[in-house]
């Protein structure tokens, strides 16, 4: 099969010599920290909370996310492995990782299509034309970009991040300049009250999938402290600057539909904002999905398919489904898959940092940069823990569902390991490396 795009070490460790420097990776983190939906989230909280309570809620949500990102992202950085490949050695085994990959891949490619559909609708409202045409154009453009991998996505971040935030700042300043900021800060909420725990649930739950799939990005980091610093900067920008600005916009406009303010008052600038907002968020949905599919195909079918080929296939699929509006009917199903992802993070954290029953092969091969020669097939206890934690997150009515399921998985897995019930069924040989070597990615 001819080589298409870059494979980006989808089924291997990222070599230390091909990691990126602090500021290049920082831009990738910042690219994930702000979106129009985050302004809408802030405005929604602003309608039901005081400014001070919204600040506390964003703080709680940011702390939760930061703990998860560091615990899982640092493991990905240390091992140079994508999230789905990491799960083979952190509690799930070879076949269990295929299930994880399927959930991740379907969830993210689904949301890629949903976001693409929102882009098409927004473009139709701004400049006219059929929304399906805008969906096709955006979907194919992002597929082409993601096909060439992390390096090209990094160049997009260098352009999109400063331009996006600069244009959004201009639009928001244009709106808030007509109001007294102290008055907006002290304004009582105009809508139904939202509690701090409920708000923190929305905040933490909204990005939990991104936090758990963070190894897909952090495997390109050179040092663990880079992960902490970069993700902290991302949280500050996302929660305190973008989110709290959304609260002020909600107070000023008396509505959560503040994206219309950002876009409607800025003409051509609003058009550019929509394009950049879609590109810099949705490329990671497609990228992480392609990594999950690569792991799934290798595990289930015993074949190594290049990530670029997979990107083209699932990108076209997501684009077509978004253009015909098919995915709009499956948002509830995609949200259900999202509930299944936090327990995976809990099991990864428990195994990698505390239990260490299955991690030993990673420790033995880390310095060589190779993958372990053997891998567990199934770890039955992990599947039981995953199912139990999913039920807790889905059906327990109190607390923060995403945190409930994540903590349940972490604690239950640790307890089962302590009493000796975390055991692989058997060990099998890892698949031979058949993918062609890639040209080195220049470091920054």
Notes on the protein architecture:
The protein is an all-alpha fold and 444 residues long. It has helices spanning 22-31, 36-48, 51-79, 83-86, 93-127, 131-147, 150-176, 181-185, 196-212, 215-218, 224-253, 259-264, 268-301, 307-323, 331-340, 342-355, 360-365, 380-395, 401-418, and strands at 374-376, 427-429. Residues 433-437 and 439-444 have low confidence and may be disordered.
Structure, briefly:
By secondary structure, the chain is an all-alpha fold. It is 70% helix and 1% strand.
Tally of individual helices: 19
In terms of DSSP E residues, the strand content is under 5%
Biggest sheet, in brief? 2 strands, antiparallel
Structural class: mainly alpha
Q: Whole-Å distance between the termini?
A: 31 Å
Helix share, percent: over 70%
> Given the C-alpha coordinates, what overall shape results?
globular
Mean of all residue-level pLDDT scores: 88
Architecture blueprint of SSEs:
Elements: H1 22-31, H2 36-48, H3 51-79, H4 83-86, H5 93-127, H6 131-147, H7 150-176, H8 181-185, H9 196-212, H10 215-218, H11 224-253, H12 259-264, H13 268-301, H14 307-323, H15 331-340, H16 342-355, H17 360-365, E1 374-376, H18 380-395, H19 401-418, E2 427-429
Antiparallel strand pairs: 1-2
Helix pairs in contact: 1-7, 1-11, 2-11, 3-9, 3-11, 3-16, 5-6, 5-13, 5-14, 5-15, 6-13, 6-14, 7-13, 13-14, 16-18, 16-19, 18-19
Structural key phrases:
444 residues, mainly alpha, two-stranded antiparallel ribbon, 70% helix, 1% strand, disordered C terminus
